[in-house]
Amino acid sequence: MKLHIKYDTVTVCKVVLQEQLEKLDIPFVFNSLGEVELKKPITYSQHKDINAALVKYGMEILDDQRSIFVQKVKDTIIEMVNSEERLASAKFSDYLAKKLNHGYGHISKIFSDVTYTSIETFIILQKIEKAKLLLMNGDLTLTEVAWKLNYSSVQHLSNQFKKTTGITPTAFQRIMKMRRGKV
Amino acid sequence: MLKLPLHVLLADDDEDDRLIFKDALEEVKMKTKVTIVNDGVQLMDYLLQADSELPGIIFLDLNMPRKGGMECLQDIRNNKNLKNLTIAIYSTSASEEDIEDTFIKGANIYIKKPNDFNALVRILSEVITINWQYHTSDLNKDNFVLSI
Predict the structure, then answer these.
(1) Element (H, E) at B41
(2) Cβ separation B133–A136 shorter than 8 A
(3) Is the model's pLDDT at A183 over the cut of 80?
(4) Which chain B residues touch A164 with a CB distance below 8 Å?
(5) N or C: which end of chain A has fewer CB within 10 A?
(6) What stretch of H or E contains B50?
């Protein structure tokens, strides 16, 4: 025999969400669009917990989780670039994997899916931005900047600067100086 | 904060170049939508209309009738509502002097118009994703210079 059951998927989903979020102690309301509105911001690990709780019901948090993860990757990279400790670039991937507790392949895939940029390019971009700031402050020579940012040589920094910005560090300094002089 | 699709504005008086640009932009992975104007006067009219949606990046041809790219660049940088827009100069010339001069006057990006389509797609992809990083990673736009 067959049982014919009429069910409403919206109600089912709402009940599941309600139960799971209450279990995780995350206060929320359904807004008029039926979206889940959290009453306060959640941490990255709570985010992971919610997703883990929902996945067995075939539900997942859309995109946002990935954006949060990417933000965390960016924060970690910026922290590394700015740290006084001189980290060999080859170690960046190990450091990221360890710090974020995921395989580097996984981190790298999500990062490029969301930002359209590879992690390597992002690290280079951050280092060159830092080099620009140091050069504009004018206290440090190019050699000192190269050392500070852990480049193996001035030549290496110059090449990467030129490759990333299309101009040489000297031209950059000249342009910025003249731009400021103008305004 | 800017949202995707990224709004791209092109000012170019050459019809063929406009079509090629549009086709190349469609090949770029990041989602974009494009507004096209035919010269500098139309560009400034568009930007100064109160209800226009401001673009995430402007591609500006240097040589246009009525009002050239250089003049637009200066007008934009002198307008307090517009001065933070990303401006990419899009030109056939590639003399070092022209490039430095546009940077000094406040351009962020200098693109030498390439001859083949695939090169243009590659250049647009790079320019658009780097610009996106500046927007989304709190990088200082004042230091954003790229010659490609």
Answers:
(1) helix B40-48
(2) no
(3) no
(4) 146
(5) N
(6) none
Q: Is A180 on the interface with B (CB under 8 A)?
A: no
| Count of other CB atoms within 10 angstroms of residue B2 | 15
What is the Rg, in whole angstroms, of the alpha carbon atoms belonging to chain B? 14
Q: If you count residue pairs, one on A and one on B, with CB atoms under 8 Å apart, how many are there?
A: 56
Q: What tens-digit pLDDT sequence spans chain B (148 residues)?
A: 456 789 999 999 999 999 999 999 999 988 899 999 999 999 999 999 978 888 999 999 998 999 999 999 999 999 998 988 999 999 888 888 889 999 999 999 999 999 899 999 999 999 999 998 888 777 888 889 999 9
Q: Which amino acid is at B103?
A: F
* Percent of chain A scoring above 70 in pLDDT: 92
Say if residue A88's pLDDT is above 90: no
Question: A167 vs A160, A163, B61, CA distance in Å?
Answer: 10, 8, 20
- Which chain B residue lies closest to A124 (C-alpha atoms)? B130
Interface test with B, best of A63, A72, A116, A133 (most B CBs within 10 A): A116
Q: Which of A125, A133, A174 sits opposite B133 (nearest CB)?
A: A125
Q: Which of A165, A174, A176 should we substitute to test contact with B (largest number of B Cβ atoms within 10 Å)?
A: A165
Side-chain half-sphere exposure of B36, counting CA atoms within 13 A = 14
Per DSSP, the residues of A101-112 read TS-HHHHHHHHH
Query: Within 10 A of A107 (CB to CB), how many other CB atoms are there?
Result: 22
Per-residue tokens: B92: 């056939």
